[in-house]
Every structure is written in C-alpha cells, then in structure tokens.
Amino acid sequence: MNRKPLKGIHHVSALTANASENFSFYTKSLGMRLVKKTVNQDDTSVYHLFYADERGNPGTDLTFFEIPRAGRTYHGTNAVTTTGLRVKSNDSLIYWKKRFEKLTIEHDNIEVLKDRKTLAFRDHEGQRLRLISDENNQGVEGGIPWEGSPVSTEHAIVGLGPVELTVSRIERTANVLTDVLGFREGASYTKPSTQQNVRVFETGEGGTGAEIHLIEEREMERERPGRGSVHHVAFRVENTDELHKWVNVLDENHLPNSGFIERYYFRSLYFREPNGILFELATDGPGFEGDEDFEVLGEKLSLPPYFEERRTEIEAKLKPLPTKEGE
C-alpha cells in the first residue's frame, strides 16, 4: 500500500499520582506550556494534561494521565525507559544543569550520546527524562518556545527528542519498527554510564525528533508501571487518510490493534509491539485550538464535543486543578 512514512515522535504519555504537583513541575520548573487540561477519554474521572511548546505543535507534547492511587514504578524491561526533550544548544545544557542544582532536581552530568550532548534528570516522581542538544541536529524541526514561560526562549524545551525503549527480545521490536512501521536502522552507540549497546532507528526526516533508541536486557524483570512511568509513545501521521492506511497495514501484518479512534485533538490508532510496549499512531491535526483560543490554552477544563453533555458529571468527579491566576 502506498503510504507516507511516519514523520517522527508525536507525543509521549506518562502517569502521575498528583496533577497539581505535576502541573507545578512541568510549567514552573521546566517552563513548558500546559496547552490542554482535559480528561482521559477512556476514564473521564481522571485528568489528562498536555505540556508542549507555545501551541502544542506535533512532536512537542509530553502528556500525563493522573492516577491518584498509582504506586511506585518498579523499573525493568519491556518499557519506555527514557523520554528525550530537545533544547537548542550545548549552552542550554549548562543553563539547565545550573537550574536543576538551584531547584534541587535530581540529575546526572552532561554526557555525549550519539555525538550529541545530553543531560539526564528525573522529575519529582522519578520520571526518567533526558535533555538533548539540537546544536548539530539535522532532521525534524523543533517547536516554538512559549514566550510566557519562566524559562527564556533561548534555552526552552522545543520538543520531544529520542525515546529510549528497553526490551527483552530486541529483534522482535526492531522488526516491527523496520518491517511494519518503516523505520531505518542507523549507527549504534554505547552508553558511557552503563556500557549498554543502543541501536538507533529513525523515520521521516530523521534527527532528534524522529528517533527510537533500542536496548536489550534479557535478564531484567518486566517493568511494573506506576507513578513516574510511561504509558505509551505515539508517532506522527500526516492526516486521517494516512491513518486509515496504517490501520490496513497493521491488519495485513496480523498485529491486533484498536482500529481508528477519534480523540478530537487528533485521530489515533493503538497497538502493542511484540514485547508489549504500547504504540500509538496519531495525526498531526486538528490540534488544540478547536475549543480554546491560543492566548488561553490550558486554562479551563476542555472536553471534546461528545463529552460536553456530561460536563457537570465529569467535573464533579475531578479535584479542582487551578491552572491560571485567580483560580
């Protein structure tokens, strides 16, 4: 079937046990913009929060489902083990290291991975994140920093970088990436801190916004997810017509999947690769301004039209989450 290549990383969705603390960390400490405060469409009793660049351009969204009773994460294999966040330059990493020290955010030293300078850190719940310098990046462009951020636009986070997966049987995942999803395998590298071999796969224009970094750990137990773990990673599809083609591709490859799903802000398709990691394919549009103006994105609880008649019921189950001055 004649389909266009996936364009890169669309979003990463993770778990938090406390929406208020999560909002504070990602907007105040990391300076990302909350572009949408909505609910989990599969469980409307909990929040779904979207942090991104100035308007939630595709490839910039780090999202969180609030699960108030989520326990701790027991790290292991067959999971998304690090989410990359792009910054513009090597100097930005120096800025962020000083900022992390000032804010007492747990972090490592700056190190070079795949000829790029990086800085690994953890959020208040142990979410594993890594800043990636785009100084020498060639490939998918980053997003546009939000001018209302407490972080200067010079050093702001401009999108999602490489996503690291750790799996027990690497060829199973590698084959889905290349043979089904159309990724290209590039040069591998060794992580200096752990001496793990990392295989790199890229799609579309390539570069930091279009890479999966794959590690094999056969002896580790399967990760037990909780607060601070990743729920799924999503890849960019140009439009709805292309997404329907991908439904057919998965069916032809006998990969059980959700089929086409309407998410209002984008359209989606979900499936699990053979090691059990949840993948999503998501369209670049329509975007987040269909129910809110640019200037006030994320300030109120947004519900897709098909949930609007249940607003009173839904709001009654949610703990208030102030996301603007005066609330």
UniProtKB/TrEMBL annotation:
Keywords: Dioxygenase, Oxidoreductase. GO terms for molecular function: dioxygenase activity. It comes from Bacillus weihaiensis. PANTHER family: RING-CLEAVING DIOXYGENASE MHQA-RELATED (PTHR36110:SF4), RING-CLEAVING DIOXYGENASE MHQE-RELATED (PTHR36110). The keyword Nuclease does not apply. It comes from the Bacteria. Residues 8-134, 159-284 form the VOC domain. This is Ring-cleaving dioxygenase. InterPro entries: Extradiol_RC_dioxygenase, Glyas_Bleomycin-R_OHBP_Dase, Glyas_Fos-R_dOase_dom, VOC_core. The keyword Cytoplasm does not apply.
